[in-house]
Specification:
The structure holds 2 protein chains of 2 kinds.
Chain A lengths: L2 E5 L1 E2 L2 E2 L1 H17 L3 E7 L15 E6 L8 H15 L3 E5 L2 H14 L3 E5 L1 E5 L2 E8 L4 E7 L4 E5 L16 E4 L11 E8 L12 E5 L10 H10 L2 E4 L1 H5 L20 E5 L5 H7 L4 E6 L12 E4 L2 H18 L1
Parallel strand pairs in A: 1-4, 1-6, 4-5, 5-12, 6-11, 7-11, 14-15, 14-16, 16-17, 17-18
Antiparallel strand pairs in A: 2-3, 8-9, 9-10
Chain B lengths: L1 E6 L1 E3 L21 E3 L1 H17 L3 E8 L4 H10 L3 E6 L7 H15 L3 E5 L10 H9 L3 E11 L2 E8 L2 E8 L2 E5 L11 H7 L4 E5 L7 E7 L8 E5 L4 H11 L4
Parallel strand pairs in B: 1-4, 1-6, 4-5, 5-11, 6-10, 7-10
Antiparallel strand pairs in B: 2-3, 7-8, 8-9
The chains are: A alpha/beta, B alpha/beta.
């Protein structure tokens, strides 16, 4: 028995969400049976041997120049070939934009069930059970799998990578696939970076979100400055996105992104139920709002009642001072 | 051009979720049922394409029980030409069997574009679009943030972490719409009246063997309200202190 993990690379580097997936696979390997085998599709080896420390015994590498970008048809072939080769009990993906596109295709090809965007996995009498939020986190369901392999994708930032320093290298084995080079029907022409160097909301450790209380898009620089000082990413409430102040990619909540950062700072956000659903699983929540009765305070660990226009710049300065002290 | 928009009836996003007596599903008491918000963006885009081309047909397809036609009517009121209702009384069928049933219906009618919302806001699985594409052997772009038709292909932008992929996709294809793709129209009174006369074809479907087994649903442990550390600028030093010393997050 074994566990297969899809290892995601972008721009020639393994993405951190795949280390999280390998870490969880390693923790399950005891109860479910190991070893942990990875499968990667790439134009060139993105340093896969180094994933030994992340928990992989072996990585199967399907390489082709077309795999520089996400190429669903070829990537599906690679994962399916790996499943046929190792006969895993479970296949684990990251619930990243790539994983959420790829995993359903593989599941459809194999005719098995997929639990997407899981926040917990457990093994009960030898069978894998997954916990996954539904209704954007207003509830969570537990699901089992009727056929092998069980397929899951894991929500980013929820599962910890192994803190390995054993120096063990993973074996990297070429995975031959019959990739048809004839022009694929869908082809990534380019990748446009939004804000270079800033992590996406779903993968950020720290998020500072702004709401309607900021009165206008011209005041979002306050939130941006605080986010920069904290080393975080900017988010927004639905009201702000619907008003056109911020792009939809910034929206946190039920019709936006569901996030689980280490620290979530809600600035001038009252806390509508659909927003709370998207951020309640954050480890630490700070609310800054001038209305002491705002619902956001009911979920916040720490609240500061005050005018964002005064409090946020002072908070930003205090954080900068702290950073300067190291 | 034939476009099919696959839609799902879901609980309104303002719904306060309670677990039903079976311990596995939403308690439907007092729930308002709506067209899945992401499906509205898909439908709107399909309608805009038809209007631009000045020809073609937009068909909505939905799988579900006897309550689904109310949502189908609202899609027809937005401007879809006709509808196909795949009837099943199975509650919460898993994405695999839904995809198999949709793919079986779609294959013979061969639409140029099969539209989905990027996910349904109830189970949040985001699986059915890519699964249907795989079963039909069609290319697929999920999370479509913008889309332009160029002859027999589409240029679409797909939201990814920290940016967008620009994808060229040949039709026929499956596309799954994200919020921001467009601004969905409201149904006009005329549209609502016209929708009453538009045909809804009912077909009973037999679903396959599910891949998942739903064991239970529970509400998350309520987050207890924390404490107010202060008010105004005077509260800032205390906020910084608790974040550093107690929460250890900065």
């Amino acid at each position: 028995m074994s566990i297969l993990v899809f290892v995601e690379q972008r721009d020639g580097a393994v993405r951190s969400v795949s280390r999280e997936a390998l870490g969880e696979a390693s923790r399950l390997a005891g109860a479910l049976g190991g070893p942990v085998v990875g499968v990667c599709a790439a134009a060139a080896d993105p340093g896969l041997a180094g994933l030994g420390e992340a928990g992989a015994a072996e990585i199967l590498l399907a390489s082709h120049p077309a795999f520089r970008f996400y190429e669903p048809r070829g990537y599906v072939q690679a994962v399916v070939a790996a499943v046929e080769r190792v006969g895993p009990q479970a296949v684990i993906f990251a619930a990243s934009s790539m994983g959420r596109d790829l995993a359903p295709r593989v599941a459809a090809r194999l005719g098995v069930g997929l639990a997407a965007d899981c926040t917990g996995l457990s093994v009960e009498s030898g069978r894998l059970t997954a916990t996954r939020p539904v209704y954007a986190g207003k509830a969570a369901q537990r699901v089992g799998f009727r056929r092998a392999p069980a397929m899951v994708s894991l929500r980013p930032k929820v599962f910890a990578p192994l803190a390995g320093t054993n120096g063990q290298a993973a074996t990297v084995t070429p995975l031959p696939i019959a990739y048809d080079e004839a022009a694929p029907k869908a082809r990534v022409r380019e990748v446009k970076a939004a804000t270079a160097g800033k992590p996406d909301l779903t993968e950020a450790d720290i998020i500072v979100s702004g709401g309607r209380g900021l009165k206008g898009p011209e005041n979002f620089h306050l939130v941006e400055a605080l986010a920069t000082a904290l080393g975080g990413t900017v988010g927004a409430s639905r009201a702000v996105v619907d008003a056109g102040w911020r792009p939809h990619a910034d929206q946190v909540g039920q019709t936006g992104k569901t996030v689980s950062p280490k620290l979530y700072v809600a600035v001038a956000i009252s806390g509508a139920i659909q927003h709370l659903a998207g951020m309640s699983s954050s480890r630490c929540i700070v609310a800054i709002n001038k209305d002491p009765d705002a619902p956001i305070f009911k979920v916040a660990d720490f609240g500061l009642v005050g005018d964002a226009f005064e409090v946020v710049p002072a908070f930003t300065e205090a954080v900068k001072k702290l950073n300067a002290q190291g | 051009m034939l476009q099919v928009v696959c839609i799902k009836q879901v609980a309104d996003t303002e719904t306060r979720v309670r677990v039903g007596p079976d311990g596995k599903s939403l308690d439907p008491t007092g729930v308002t049922w709506i067209l899945n918000p992401y499906d509205e963006f898909a439908l709107e885009q399909a309608l805009r394409i038809k209007e631009k081309l000045g020809a073609g047909e937009v068909v909505v397809m939905s799988l579900g029980g006897t309550q689904v036609p109310t949502t189908i009517r609202s899609a027809l009121a937005m401007g879809a030409d006709r509808a196909i209702h795949l009837k099943t009384e199975i509650a919460q069928p898993d994405p695999l069997v839904v995809s198999q049933a949709l793919a079986a219906e779609l294959e013979p009618i061969a639409p140029q574009i099969v539209w989905f919302g990027k996910q349904a806001v109830d189970d949040d699985q985001a699986q059915v679009g890519p699964m249907v594409a795989e079963l039909l052997g069609l290319p697929c772009v999920s999370v479509v943030a913008s889309m332009e038709l160029e002859g027999s292909r589409a240029i679409v932008e797909r939201e990814i972490e920290g940016g967008r992929e620009v994808v060229e996709v040949e039709l026929p294809a499956v596309l799954a719409a994200d919020k921001g793709l467009n601004e969905p129209r409201y149904a006009s009174l005329k549209g609502i009246m016209a929708a009453k006369k538009k045909p809804i074809e009912e077909k009973s479907v037999v679903l396959g063997e599910p891949g998942l087994e739903l064991l239970s649903m529970a509400l998350p442990a309520a987050r207890s309200a924390g404490r107010i550390v202060g008010s105004g600028i005077e509260g800032v030093p205390e906020l910084v202190r608790v974040l550093r010393e107690e929460a250890k997050v900065i």
